[in-house]
Amino acid sequence: MNVTIPESFQVSPFYQQTVVNIDAESLSFLDICQAIPFYYDITMEKRPWEEKDVFVPMLFACWDKERPILEQYYKDRNPLAAKEKMNSMLALLIDALFWLNGRQVTNLTGLTSSVQSLLYKPVNVEERLEFILLQAGKYHSYVQLKSLFIEVRKLYARVKIMELKEK
Q1: Cβ-contact 137, 86 below 8 angstroms
Q2: What sequence ranges are listed for the domain YpoC-like (predicted)?
Q3: Which phi and psi angles does 132 have, rounded to 5°?
Q4: Cβ atoms of 144 and 153 closer than 8 Å
């Protein structure tokens, strides 16, 4: 299946091409999320932002599984492999952040302003995301990404508790 990538998502490091080919039938949700960043935001095949209690924990589980691999890339001083994995994990973080807020990622060209409008977000997340985007292969970017995942996970728990209290 060919997926046409909208211009608003054709942002480095995620996409430079306009069409991506994927066999979505044979891949799991997380495999698709890693192979084609923002796939569900682009295609709206599923609407994970409407079922955050199902999908956001899946993104965290994927990070937990992939984090040791990233750490090993940095230990082995393999920045090219690290950069590719970092881009994939950064896309998961951005999805988690938006889906936590019940919102779809609608574009990457105005990511900073979109993130600013989110109700639940880590402190200085806009600057931290920009730092990671500009230097994805660097170890300091990994440290920031790791920290952001921890903070977004805590935010998710806090939001879930607040929603339970409202019921």
Answers
A1: yes
A2: 55-163
A3: -65, -45
A4: no
On whether residue 128 sits in a domain, the answer given is yes
User: How many Cβ atoms sit within 10 Å of the Cβ of residue 106?
Assistant: 16
Cβ atoms of residues 148 and 122 within 8 Å: yes
DSSP letters for 104-141: ----STTHHHHHHT-SS--TTHHHHHHHHHHTTTSHHH
How many angstroms separate the CA atoms of 91 and 14, rounded? Answer: 8
pLDDT of residue 166: 86
Task: Report pLDDT digits (tens) over 48-103.
Answer: 999 999 999 999 999 999 999 999 999 999 999 999 999 999 999 999 999 999 99
pLDDT in tens, 11-52: 989 998 889 888 878 889 999 999 899 999 999 999 999 999
Residue 39 lies in a domain: no
Is 16 within the bounds of a domain? no
Which tens digits make up the pLDDT trace of 113-135? 999 999 999 999 999 999 999 99
User: Sign (positive/negative) of CA torsion 9, 83, 94, 22?
Assistant: positive
